[in-house]
User: Which sequence fits this backbone?
């Protein structure tokens, strides 16, 4: 019997995976992440699909490193539900900031590579900073 292929990961689904990773607590494995996404979307993706997307793979390894050795015991939970929810939100935001800072660092490294390669090919800064051409909307070619 042939398996049906899962739909492609859209930007919305990638954001869902990243948000799930940002709020993750406890043991993290690819199988557990896939199960959580299946529970949220009803779609089963493979580990290899997630690993193809660098932002997901980087966020996964960053979260895995952050969780490694940090679960010696649960800290006391406040009794007030609002305070507990606020603390959970703070933890999610901290994880998201950490992930975005790492992603920013990777983009800066990519920019340095591009700048070096452009310089080697004779592309000047003025050429790189030239404005984009205006789109030709509402005009037909050849008619003025």
Assistant:
């Amino acid at each position: 019997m042939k398996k049906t292929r899962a739909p492609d990961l859209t930007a919305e689904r990638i954001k869902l995976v990243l948000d799930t990773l940002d709020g993750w607590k406890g043991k993290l494995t690819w199988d557990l992440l896939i199960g959580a996404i299946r529970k949220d979307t009803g779609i089963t993706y493979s580990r290899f699909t997630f690993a193809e997307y660098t932002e997901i793979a980087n966020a996964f390894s960053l979260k895995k490193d952050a969780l490694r050795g940090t679960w010696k015991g649960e800290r006391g939970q406040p009794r007030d539900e609002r305070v507990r929810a606020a603390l959970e939100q703070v933890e999610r935001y901290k994880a998201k900031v950490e992930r975005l800072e790492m992603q920013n660092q990777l983009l800066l490294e990519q920019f340095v590579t591009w700048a070096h390669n452009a310089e080697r090919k004779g592309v000047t800064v003025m050429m790189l900073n030239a404005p984009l051409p205006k789109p030709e909307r509402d005009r037909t070619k050849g008619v003025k």
The chain is about 60% helix and 0% strand. The chain has one domain: 11-67+80-124. The CA atoms of residues 47 and 119 lie 38 Å apart.
